[in-house]
Amino acid sequence: MRILRHGRPGMPASAIAIGSFDGVHRGHAALIGNVRDRARALGLATAVITFEPLPREFFAPQAAPGRISSLAERLACLASLGVEVAYALRFDRAFAALTAEAFEKRLAAHHRARWVMV
After folding, report:
1. pLDDT, tens digit, 9 for 90 and up, residues 12-37
2. To which H or E segment does residue 37 belong?
3. What helix, strand, coil percent values describe the chain, rounded to 5?
4. Residue 105: enclosing H or E segment and its boundaries?
5. Burial class (CB in 10 A: 0-12, 13-18, 19+), 117
6. What pTM does this model have?
């Protein structure tokens, strides 16, 4: 699995799952399975976008629950589910301020998203 902090030109067109994926539980595995199946059907790469820090840690660090898994553990679990590209995006004030339209454009341009599941 390729792990990137930012999308970049030349990345393969992909079906992308977006989420925190802390713990990578059975529900996450089912979601990744759906994305993987759709990616194969459409001839796309299977990708995920996850965040560091997790959004709930950014917005309310005092109230955020303890992590179930580290970023490295999360990425290892995602790789075992057949994810080909993982984007570990920095969740900061600038990212949180993106409009839905700006995020959609970023997904298409930087991550070459052609199909998305959240």
Report:
1. 999 999 999 988 999 999 999 999 99
2. helix 26-42
3. 40, 25, 35
4. helix 100-110
5. middle
6. 0.91
